Amino acid sequence: MSVMLPAFPENVMTISVPYISNLSVEGFEKVDAAPRYKSCLQRMFDVFEEQQNNLGIDALIIKCVVDNMQNLELLLKSVKD
Questions:
Q1: Contact criterion met (CB below 8 Å) for 55 and 63
Q2: What is the mean pLDDT of the chain?
Q3: How far is 75 from 30, CA to CA, in rounded Å?
Q4: Dihedral, CA atoms, 25, 31, 36, 38, nearest 10 degrees?
């Protein structure tokens, strides 16, 4: 992936984006919890692949943690009130 800072458009750098390549719907179907997600399993993997390609696995994990933390904070505030 090529990146650059808008302030320095002449300095384009190439970075590698970490990616998990050995995941599959078939592999996840072997997990005990898979039947709960049967109706949306393929869509989950499609979205995961898209986001992983856009962000890289490391940034995707951080984004998921932050999103869930924010959701938990809202839930705790609503219970508190």
A1: yes
A2: 88
A3: 32
A4: 20
